[in-house]
Specification:
Blueprint lengths: L1 E6 L4 E11 L6 E12 L1 H4 L7 H21 L11 H11 L4 H9 L11 E7 L3 H18 L3 E5 H7 L7 E3 L8 E6 L4 E8 L2 E7 L5 H11 L7 H14 L22 H17 L7 H30 L3 E5 L6 H14 L2 E3 L10 H14 L17
Parallel strand pairs: 1-4, 4-5, 7-10, 10-11
Antiparallel strand pairs: 1-2, 2-3, 3-6, 7-8, 8-9
Helix pairs in contact: 2-4, 2-5, 3-5, 6-12, 7-9, 7-10, 8-10, 10-11
The structure holds 5'-O-[(R)-(carboxyoxy)(hydroxy)phosphoryl]adenosine and zinc ion.
Amino acid sequence: MRILGIETSCDETSLCILDAHIDVHTGTTIYTNKSHIIVSQASLHEEYGGVFPAMAKREHQKNIIPALSQLFKKLSPPEDQEILFSEKSNELQTILEREPTVYEFLSQQTDIHNNPNIDAIAVTHGPGLEPALWVGINTAKALGNLWNIPVIPVNHMEGHIWSVYANEESFSLPENTEFPITALLVSGGHTELVLVKDFCDYEIIGQTKDDASGEAFDKIARLLGLSYPGGVHISRLAKQARVNALLNPFTFPRPMMHTPDFNFSFSGLKTSVRYTVDKEIIKDKDILSSEVFQQYIAQETEDAIVDVLTAKTVRAINQYQTKTCIIAGGVSANAQLRIVLKDKLEAMGVTLLVPPLSLTGDNALMIALAGHIQYKKNPDTICGDIRAVGSLSL
Ligand code: KG4
Ligand code: ZN
């Protein structure tokens, strides 16, 4: 089975072609990444200090068909087929009524009118920014119509969960996955602890009451005058602080770390950093240009976030007696989080699974994989009327 994956939930336009075939000897599904592309808009959103939805939508509309064309260049050309574009153009125009730019590109880019043996399309339908999600969904519907193949709606967070088994080449899911698994999903929009009971069977056992952990990293980075997305800058500065090993004069709270539940709260941490920064600016108006000051704040911010995430994850593992733990989503790229969790879990005899660094952020490969897992388990999930659901839950 060949799947086209489409991801447009935030500020990355990502597409991939993932082949899934069953090894006749072992019965295992072998996945092969034939082609994968991620077009990031992050630098365009930098000046807004976060993702600006109208611009995200416009960029997806502009990028999605050219990206598809680029993706197809890596595949062997399809056998000659009857090109149906002209007889379907009215229908396609209707499907793409809200995405006229996509229709325009689609009608001009004749190299993608022939289907290179794709059997199904997996597309993110939530959670995320609805205007952005719609671009992916409508494009998937149009291509599904043009090529006469089904479209599978995929939950973005489900994609993040299974990204731990993916890579950019060839991979398979382990023979006997032992459920339940504790999954800590940490991104710009989400921080949740999920009990993975089986493929396609999830229970959210805790989540943030306010800001997501990635959002906290980004907002605190902004207080330090660092560009969006700020997580990676905080991480770099914190690492430097650890190398310098100076005594950090600042202490920030670890909100909700000891509450007997699995929820999180990060907005108090951001407020506390803001007070500290404001106070230090009064003492020295140029303090923000001090690299050492930035390093102190970054280190204590990262430690606070990592401490809370680790404590709650360990609590969940103990309560649900899980032997495997997944961390995924953009913040799972954070080296300190990986180091601290790995050490803690190793001592508990728990296996930690993390995505390869190239797949921690939003990508279509994880969407195609989650789409195939869903299709295998329940082929009926293919439905005609797919809608964008910004607050879609697992
Ligand atoms: O999953 P993702 O790419 O997009 C969403 O679905 O939100 O996550 C993006 C988030 C941003 O907040 C970004 O600052 C954060 O992941 N991030 C990091 C690191 N790399 C990305 N946070 C901390 N440390 C990092 N190394
Ligand atoms: Zn994400």
